[in-house]
Amino acid sequence: MSGGARSLEPWRWLGVPMLQVIAATMLLALPIRFWGLALPEPVFALPVAFAWAAIRPSMLAPFGVALMGFFMDLLWGGPLGLWAVCLLIAYGGALGGRAFMAGQGRAAMWSWYGVLATLAFGAGYLFTMLDVKGMPSPLSLFWQFLATLLLYPFADRLIERFEDADVRFR
Prior knowledge:
The protein is mainly alpha-helical.
């Protein structure tokens, strides 16, 4: 095992980040206002889903991604399955592009993350339009997207922490 890498036990690279996502989502869902503005509601699960796909293929990761999506749907009061599907679309895109991401620098990875975030939010926007038969607020979507895009350093930290842990995928 290299210097900064951690062992690849499921509770460590899947369970702990999932609990952190749930805690951060609940914290920012509190009805706290500063100067009349509510806290942003970034999709904390997206960086984790991206990182899990970049770290290594796993049978457990898609179930964790779906669980986080269902949790967000229940917490935010959205249609059940909306965020689960959107996150799984991003996870699948990252998993499919894993070979292209290997060995890329931070800027390229952040760009790839941005493309997948755009795909996930675009799918969520379209699914919401179909569900409510109207257009959600594009400005609200933009701010949520921007806040989520700024979360990439958390995905990068998770990838850096575990990418060398499994020698089978070097």
